[in-house]
Amino acid sequence: MSADPQYALERLQEIAELDLLSADVDPMLQDIARQTATHLSLPVSLISVVLDDALHVAGSHGLDGLWLGETRGHPVEWSFCATSVRTREAYVVERATEDAYHRTNPLVVQDGVRCYAGVPLISSRGFVLGNLCVVGLEERTFTVSEVAFLHDMAKTAVARIEERRTRGAVT
């Protein structure tokens, strides 16, 4: 078994138990994504679930008309969000075209992603499910207070996700 938390069986089981790939998750998370994008004045906000081989979009704002809005995911190799699964910390890329890891990423090269800021979604059981993130098409510096806002909104998203377990919507 790999030491990389992204592949931890217990984390993947938590995602399955929370039924985060269900279509009913998106509507309950859309307003969090919208509020986040609006507050940070960025076009896109995602609530992602990082699986072992793919990123799944569980909630979003700003994807209308984009291929990601239709596919609801992409290969994990392209994922900025996977970094937070491994580190359990915020991950910020202010100039994606200059970033050593992401400058050749198809999301940067083909789709024009220029900045990213994301924070981990940590369940009450301590597993990183994915991220709450924002994406922009222009380079941008993120302030400490903006990253703190992302953390606050991520906690709200996790609370909503876990309410489903409490209400019995998931087993």
UniProtKB/TrEMBL annotation:
InterPro entries found in the cross-reference section: GAF, GAF-like_dom_sf
Q: Where is the GAF domain?
A: 24-158
Q: What is the top-level taxon of the source organism? A: Bacteria
Quote the PANTHER family the UniProt record gives: GAF DOMAIN-CONTAINING PROTEIN (PTHR43102:SF2), SLR1143 PROTEIN (PTHR43102)
- Name of the molecule in the record: GAF domain-containing protein
Q: Which organism is it from?
A: Gemmatimonas groenlandica
